[in-house]
Specification:
It is a single chain. This protein is an alpha+beta fold. The protein contains 4 helices and 19 strands. The protein has a 6-stranded mixed sheet, with no helix packed on it. It has a 5-stranded mixed sheet with strand order 12-19-18-14-15, with no helix packed on it. Strand 9 and strand 10 form a beta hairpin. The radius of gyration is 46 Å and the shape is rod-shaped. It starts with a helix and ends with a helix. The C terminus is likely disordered.
């Protein structure tokens, strides 16, 4: 409003008088004089502003390049896609990740129900058999499964929190120890021949402490009046027990049981024949030995055959 009245006053005075009259009628008081801006100073200010913008863009570009140059987490090429666990024992699945950005960058998931089992060092399942293992700054993230069950067999995924998520699939195979007697369920031998019963233990996490033989539910005694009884064992990835009975007789007919300690037994029924049914008979008089016999066992059997 003041400006409007001031302008109207100028117009009226100019119509009535000269500049002196205008200044006398409306004196300008309290006016701040501005420093004159030259073309050179204005251009420099604009250039300085542009330089600041360029520097900001350079900083942003450098930060962006740093993000792009940062190494992405990746799986170790030596990781195995399959693991084998023994029933009732502990399984250990290890995921090796390089350049992980944090301890929580790696997780384990179960394939059959897509359940998250572990994240970093933390376990996210109520099944106390599962446990997460990870040490600070280590490249290994481990999933431990205690008291492995047959239902634990299947696919497991190790995941890295990248964009998109990186996954490595692992198949866990659960094997159950088995025991068998070669030639079972029925074994035929000729009378007066040497009996060779072979018991093999498969997929045991370690060799059994002892293997006991039974005949008709009676433990076979090496000092019994029958005589001619011996047992030879071979231990390794598979454990084998050879029961050798010299001079087969009718009383040897019956059920023989191989009982490894802590495992299910294996049974075979022995038939001692007196010359009949030759086609169905496993005769030891011809010295036909079981496969994979050690040199010691073969030598023992040959010696026995020579005596007979």
């Amino acid at each position: 409003m003041f400006i409007f009245l001031y302008v109207m006053g100028l117009l009226m005075v100019s119509a009535c008088g000269g500049p002196e009259d205008v200044e006398a009628a409306y004196p300008l008081t309290g006016v701040t004089e501005l420093t004159p801006i030259s073309y050179t100073s204005l251009t420099g200010a604009l250039l300085n502003h542009d330089d600041e913008d360029d520097e900001a863009e350079i900083v942003e570009d450098e930060e962006g390049n740093e993000d792009e140059d940062e190494e992405e987490p990746y799986f170790d090429a030596s990781m195995s896609p399959t693991y084998t666990a023994y029933l009732g024992k502990t399984a250990t699945l290890t995921c090796i990740v390089h350049a992980a950005k944090s301890d929580k960058s790696v997780s384990w998931m179960r394939g059959r129900d897509l359940r998250i089992l572990t994240v970093g060092r933390y376990t996210y399942t109520t099944d106390l058999r599962f446990e997460a293992l990870h040490q600070q700054a280590s490249t290994e993230w481990t999933l431990r499964i205690k008291s492995v069950q047959l239902r634990d067999q299947g696919n497991y995924e190790c995941q890295i929190t990248t964009r998109p998520i990186s996954t490595f699939n692992v198949f866990l195979k659960v094997v159950e120890p088995t025991v068998e007697v070669l030639g079972a369920p029925d074994i035929y031998v000729n009378r007066a021949s040497m009996i060779n019963l072979t018991c093999i233990v498969h997929h045991a996490p370690y060799p059994p402490e002892a293997i006991t033989w039974y005949h008709n539910n009676q433990s076979i005694s090496y000092t019994s009046p029958r005589g001619g009884v011996s047992v030879v064992e071979e231990r390794g990835e598979t454990t084998t027990s050879f029961l050798l009975l010299q001079n087969a007789r009718a009383s040897d007919t019956g059920t023989f049981t191989c009982q490894p300690e802590g495992m299910q037994p294996a049974l075979a029924t022995l038939h001692v024949l007196d010359g009949e049914h030759q086609a169905a008979m496993q005769t030891n008089s011809s010295c036909v030995c079981a496969p994979k016999l050690s040199f010691l066992v073969v030598a023992f059997i040959v010696t026995c055959c020579a005596v007979l």
